[in-house]
Amino acid sequence: MLPLVLSACGGVEPETVPSGDEAAVGVREDGLASVRLRLMAANITSGTGQDYDPGHGIRIFQGTKPDVVMLQEFNYKTNSATDLRSFVDTTFGTGFSYFRESGSGIPNGIISRYPIISAGEWDDTNVSDRDFAWARIDVPGPKDLWVVSVHLLTTSSSVRNTEATSLVSRIKANIPTGDYLVIGGDFNTGSRTESCLTTLSQVVSTASPYPADRNGNTNTNAGRNSPYDHVLPDSDLRAYQTAVVIGGSSFSAGLVADTRVYSPISEISPALSSDSGASGMQHMAVIKDFLIPGDSTAGSVTVTSPNGGESWAGGSAHTVTWTSSGVTSVKVEYSLNGGSTWSTLTSSTSATSYAWTVPSSASTTARVRVTDASDATVTDSSDGAFSITTSGGGTASVIINEVMVNEPGSDVTGEFVEIVNIGTASADLSGWTVSDAASVRHTFPSGTSLAAGGVVVVFGGAAGIPSGTPGAVVASTGTLGLSNSGDTVTLKNASGTAVDTATLSSGVSGTDGVSANRSPDASASGTFVLHTSLSSLTSSPGTRASGASF
User: Is the pTM of this model over 0.85?
Assistant: First the structure.
């Protein structure tokens, strides 16, 4: 049976819930109609002691501001109650509670902005230096959040599945299905299809999309080549998942916090660019955000501008405005086709205006929509259509110009799709997709624009991008997965209409390290040929076939 109070839980550190701050958290809970809940899995110790003493992980915590952390290797200085309380106060705040399992060399733990009602540990019989740490947390709203912090073994996938089977049994026996559940931490999984994740899918969601760093890399270990760390919510909680928003940045599927590639680094100050690469740094932290219902109140939003009849020039700066009542934050979107499809400007803002650079795509049926970020039924859009004009009557013309199907060697991160705008006006690529014959491999984020004569190159992974490649981005799914025996690459706009298709035969796909390129180069009517038939180069991502700039 689960203990009902902290004092009954083995291994609870003294004074884990400061009595003076619990009431303040309760006031915050009662006053909110919806609450953004940021959950983090973090094995981000550094140095040689498997502890947080060096401070690199502390800065990452301070910069990303999680509400609940599933912590691994929870060691700090002498591990006394005073030192641990000091770590929590300095890193998160004096109002945070914590639980740390006892009698372990590299203990798991849980740190929470909200009161920990009860906590404890379940024995992991496969390992001697840590167990499964759990906590029941009084988050805003009618449900409690049950959190399990895990650190599975590196020994083998079969052992990890044994651990997962034991954990699922404990969860089914002890945690009410009506409450929220999240399992997080260091799973040491070599792939996302490992059997332990299949086992855990009985109680939590292990499906995509997966959190990614600024470059689209979803892997989390120190070498950034394996998905070791996870935040896995149950279906009840996953229904409220939303984009992770930090400063002006939004990560639709969640964030892998690698400070080496995060930009601008000022958004997660005081974290330093070098922190994730510090000596002995274990892994990258993983973050997911959720907008959970609190004490709900009736809300309303009303779009005031643009509200119909306006004519705005593409590329010009305008302000979208709205009024709201009883709403904490809103999602702002726009449509270029009368509302058939929508592109997101911001997934969450508490303001009543948004500074917008109008896309350079002509439309006579444009509209703006504003929606309560936690209740999609509270929404309003422009009363009438407004127009977007482009100067000089130019038009965009976007094509697939070059595709690396058969990557050099066996590193599939080197696969790429080069997309060129050969038109005379810029193109708004928000919501456009790149797919092969199997599935969608990349979705361009909101606000992506491709200038006339511009180029963007979608790579299978960050490691495959040659230094200095113009317009290089990483596939949002973490791979392109092109077939060396031939494939079809399709570029679709936000409405799902095919803009261009490259059908690549085995003849242009079967030569290792040689791309398929349009002939003539950058021609919408050109056929695909081996790149070596156009120049001495085997490929030319981001440049013309000759190597010259577009």
Answer: no
